[in-house]
Amino acid sequence: MKILSAAQTREADAATLQYEEIDSLELMERAALAFASWFENKFTPQEHVYIFCGPGNNGGDGLAVARILSQRQYHVKVYLVGDSQNTSQDHNVNLQRLPDTITRQTLHSPTDFPPLHPATCVIDALFGTGLNRPVTGLFAALIDYLNNSGSCITSIDMPSGLYTDSQTPAESAIVKANYTVSFELPKLAFFLPQHEQFVGAWHVVQIGLSPAFIATAPSDFHFATTQEAKKLVKPRRKFSHKGTYGHALLLCGSYGKMGAAVLAARSCLRSGVGLLTMHVPEAGYTILQTAVPEAMTHTDRHQKYLSELPEGLEKYSAIGLGPGIGTDKMTKAALAQLLTTSTSPIVIDADAINIIATSDKLKAELPKHKVIFTPHPKEFERLVGKAKNDYDRLQDMKEFCREYSCYICLKGANTAICTPEGTIYFNTTGNAGMATGGTGDVLTGILTALVAQNYSLEQACLLGVFAHGLAGDLASQKVGEIGMIASDLIDHLPQAFIALTTA
Ligand SMILES: NC(=O)C1=CN([C@@H]2O[C@H](COP(=O)(O)OP(=O)(O)OC[C@H]3O[C@@H](n4cnc5c(N)ncnc54)[C@H](OP(=O)(O)O)[C@@H]3O)[C@@H](O)[C@H]2O)[C@@H](O)CC1
Ligand SMILES: Nc1ncnc2c1ncn2[C@@H]1O[C@H](COP(=O)(O)OP(=O)(O)O)[C@@H](O)[C@H]1O
Ligand SMILES: [K+]
Predict the structure, then answer these.
(1) What residues are neighbours of ligand 3 (ion), with CB under 5 Å?
(2) How far apart are CA 91 and CA 471, in angstroms?
(3) What is the spatial distance between Cα 444 and Cα 372, in angstroms, rounded to a whole number?
(4) Could you tell me if the ipTM is greater than 0.90?
(5) How far is the centre of ligand 1, averaged over its atoms, from the C-alpha of 298 (Å)?
(6) Ligand that lies nearest to the alpha carbon of residue 376, given by its number in the listed order
(7) Mean pLDDT over residues 120-143, rounded?
(8) Lower CB count within 10 Å: N or C terminus of the chain?
(9) Going from the N-terminus, what domains does the chain have, and what CATH number goes with each?
(10) Was 110 annotated as part of a binding site?
């Protein structure tokens, strides 16, 4: 699904009003009802709810929510902030609609701020997507006050003070929400690690914005949905055989890191590949043959490192390399040879990324439209460079992918997949239990398997990263996040693919 900018969200709003022939108040009511339903599922009417409303339509939402929650037996108090001359029309109407039974107070200075307790439920309706400058002055003082109150904060649409789709200036105060409940589509800001402390756990509630507008709106940013991932899966054919599903080659491991090779091999096999050959240093022979009997094992002449390529590279439909290989000179030479001789698509991970990062010559030799890089943030920094903030990092990623006609899966809580055209897809599966050694090696195996089966590189990235995270989510239901290890992901890959192939 697309991610829209703040400006496009306003346009979507206008298109919806026109298409449905409704007025903006009705859309605000829908938004408030959708928010209130989410809120009711989360918080009981025993809670005291303090709603802080800004001057615009975000504040208008807050006022409508106050009315609805009060009807549903919550104890609601409303706090209006700022100049009452500059309020939006829909804000004004919802203020008039507020029943007299609801206490309301205008905050003129910090001395007016109400006492807050950890048990108070704060709803932040100060600013949403209409924020157009840094938050300072009384609003900033209030935001600091809310942030330090220890109360549970739920933001309507956006944490107030956070820009929707561009870097927030350092001087802006920003609400640190526990929950952000946004309308129709998640906002770009939600996917960036630098905003973790502001956005909290985000949820999207539907308000029926025009699907036709969303479908035609241009956007470089997308997020993954289960429905889209399911559409990517190619069903197995009845009369198929192992040759139908490709032959993958994985070059992995070094002395002391043969586990990486085992993890990549096992995940590759669990992702539907027809045949798998492992090329590992000689010391890995017994390990691989014992731990992964389904894979063919080919050994390097070197005992501890990879120093050469296996013969007959052209017979492999995909090659994956990097997990556990180290950065020895001989390994670097073999990698250089691979880049110039291979005609197959290549998934490049871990130390293979580190090797390429140090050499402009190797970068120049990257075959066009044939490479997927899977860096974690540190490897990304080595390969592409250090960015000032997460927005710049996305921009740098687009430029790198365009320059080298490659794909990057920048791994993290919402792995960002970038295509050579500069389109970015954020993954939405996975959990913090996956922050443990070896889970990246599992991803390399999955992607190599999918590319070997003739998925396009883009499809492989989207489906592979989604399935990897889904396996993590299924594993967390069994073993929790704290006790999770990379092998648990492999064990849950079959279930993840079952989930993606059933309606
Ligand atoms: N399509 C949807 O998703 C729907 C969206 N809806 C809701 O509408 C929200 C957007 O509402 P919005 O456009 O009125 O903007 P909003 O966020 O209230 O802020 C603008 C106000 O704040 C002011 N202001 C700005 N920056 C400021 C600052 N730093 N410091 C001080 N003041 C500042 C600005 O003042 P001005 O610039 O005029 O001086 C103006 O008064 C959206 O987030 C969602 O909650 C639903 O109701 C229906 C469907
Ligand atoms: N907090 C998190 N939420 C979701 N996924 C995560 C989180 N932390 C890490 N991951 C995933 O786990 C994997 C870690 O990969 P990586 O850092 O390369 O591990 P390793 O090198 O040990 O194999 C990536 O796919 C990443 O997206
Ligand atoms: K808000």
Answers:
(1) 58, 124, 155-156, 160
(2) 45
(3) 10
(4) yes
(5) 62
(6) 2
(7) 97
(8) C
(9) 6-219 (3.40.50.10260), 243-501 (3.40.1190.20)
(10) no
Buried b (16+ CB within 10 A) or exposed e, 471-481: bbbbbbeeeee
Name the residue with the closest Cα to ligand 1, atom 34. Answer: 56
To 10 degrees, the CA torsion angle through 483, 486, 488, 490? 170
State the ligand closest to the CA atom of 59.
1
Of 165, 174, 161, give the one whose Cα is nearest residue 131.
161
260 labelled binding-site residue: yes
Q: Is the pLDDT of residue 85 over 90?
A: no
pLDDT digits (tens, 9 = 90+) for 401-442: 999 999 999 999 999 999 999 999 999 999 999 999 999 999
Q: What is the pTM of this model?
A: 0.97
* Of 486, 483, 481, 450, the residue nearest 465 (C-alpha): 450
Mean pLDDT for the chain?
97
Length of the chain: 503
Closest ligand 2 atom number to CA of residue 430: 4
Each residue's pLDDT tens digit, 175-199: 999 999 999 999 999 999 999 999 9
- Tens of pLDDT, residue by residue over 112-130, are 999 999 999 999 999 999 9
248/318 Cα distance (integer angstroms): 5
Chain position carrying tokens 């590759």? 268
Q: What is the dihedral of CA 412, 415, 416, 418, to 10 degrees?
A: 110
On whether the CB atoms of residues 49 and 76 are closer than 8 A, the answer is: yes
